[in-house]
């Protein structure tokens, strides 16, 4: 636009001379005519000269006034030009201004629109995201709009709720009140605030805190806004809290334990009834007093330590101590103390619970006394007493196990001992225990349990159940007696029965056999001399006959008392003779005989030859048990005031623990050429001497035979034997 304007200016400037000339001509013409008219009017009827002069003056005047007009015009044209430019400029400015002002109005309109939109948006987002339910209703109470919280709280979708009356969502009982409030909001234009219940879509009841606000349009209520908050949980929690508080208070009042609060200065602030009863102070008397009044004088230091403990530990649980009543009497109490802190973590008070344990202490000490007595009995009885818990684990076993099994009580505690039982007895033990658990009745079980050195000890046990208050078996008490001795006696009886039978048989048979045997032997001897070509066979016959004769002689030992004589004998000498006798056999078997005799052993009264037979049998067995050689030790020692003991130790093959009871039975042998009579005869001889013979053995490690003999024989016995002789 401004460019066009400029072009216009250039054009006007160029045109000025032509236009001015034309104007000049016009002005000139007009001036001449005017002058002529005026002069004509003034100079009517003048002469010719005057007419020519007149014409000239007319021309001069015309030219002069034309020139003046032109000058004026030229000046005017510049002014016009300037005016025009100014006009143009102001026109430009104006249009610019107009332009500007129109833009601002548009902008203003836009701005206003944006503000409206924004506030609308703000309203919407406030509406939509408000955590409380926000809704609006028309005058009939139908929902017009509702926010997300309405959906979340009620469980209904917007489609289900909008354009429906609020009354159909109400808890029926509350409907009249809510409708009344709604109507008031509309009629009076009043804000209403109240609580009501609605029913969730899934049926549960929700408690709401509701505000109704009238919507005014030009002073008329056109609808109602509602804001509602779900306070179900809050009310619930408050109710629960009140309930808990009530409970706590009733607990505080009615518990049998003393409860008290002490402030930081040690002043008692609150106590319950039980406290009054246990500590013997009424609440009025003790509240406001220092707690140290309740602590016996000697225990103030302990108090200080407890306080220190509470400073870093927060709690003190079941601490047993002594407190003092108002009358100065002392009582046992178990206390539990907790530190109470304020919000900043500062210790403000101590809460204590005290339980009177005088009675418990009394019972405990009575129990301890009873336990002590029982312990005395269990630890000194010769029986073993064991206590098992409900998992059949040993909790206690009397110290005597040590002597019977070679294990200490501690070795058994915490185990069930099953792997010490003899495998053959295990089944029966379990059966019996089953019956005990079934019937609740005690059972008697006889079984074998392993000794530390491997052999089994026979036990006769009474197993008794221990019941709890509900008649459930919660443990077992076992009283066990070492039965080995008894069984050995029984065994001996059994053996001696056998011996008696064998003896009777032998008495008859031996006599019958001996005579024919003598003839056979004599004839064989005779034939040996006569028939040298059969010597080989006859030698065998004779040696077999010797064996038969030997067996016969052994039988006769059992059959009837021999002509025996008890004499005082030096045991060392007797053993020396036997060692000399067996030396050769020992050397052949690569066995070394070592003798360890105790000095100054007294002589013993015995039947020397018979006793020799015993030691020959025992030592021969020992040598035979060491086919690859070894040591054979012979030890003598005093075994008491009236006893001596001879021990024969070998490191041969050993005897299986189960076989030991069989030793001494007739014909029990493990050797190809054995008779199984050696030990039988030995047992008999030792028995006749009122002594004892015992075997201890570990398979693969060796055997010890212990022979105990009385130093002086019972005179009756000596006499009897003498009589027989
Ligand atoms: P025999 O020697 O004829 O076999 P015994 O009555 O003397 O008969 O011995 C019976 C059995 O006892 C023997 O066969 C052997 O098995 C066992 N016995 C006795 N003493 C020992 C020993 N010291 N070491 C190993 N076994 C032994
Ligand atoms: Mg033998």
TrEMBL record:
InterPro entries: HATPase_C_sf, HATPase_dom, His_kinase_dom, HisK_dim/P_dom, HisK_dim/P_sf, PAC, PAS, PAS-assoc_C. Residues 508-713 form the Histidine kinase domain. The keyword Transmembrane helix applies. Keywords: ATP-binding, Coiled coil, Kinase, Membrane, Nucleotide-binding, Phosphoprotein, Sporulation, Transferase, Transmembrane, Transmembrane helix, Two-component regulatory system. Residues 192-243, 317-369, 441-495 form the PAC domain. It is an enzyme of class 2 (transferase). Its EC number is 2.7.13.3. The keyword Kinase applies. SUPFAM superfamilies: ATPase domain of HSP90 chaperone/DNA topoisomerase II/histidine kinase, Homodimeric domain of signal transducing histidine kinase, PYP-like sensor domain (PAS domain). The chain crosses the membrane at residues 21-43, 55-74. Pfam families: HATPase_c, HisKA, PAS_3, PAS_4, PAS_9. Gene3D superfamilies: 1.10.287.130, Histidine kinase-like ATPase, C-terminal domain, PAS domain. Residues 119-189, 244-313, 370-440 form the PAS domain. It catalyses: ATP + protein L-histidine = ADP + protein N-phospho-L-histidine. This is histidine kinase. GO terms for biological process: sporulation resulting in formation of a cellular spore. Residues 73-100 form a coiled coil. GO terms for molecular function: ATP binding; phosphorelay sensor kinase activity. SMART domains: HATPase_c, HisKA, PAC, PAS.
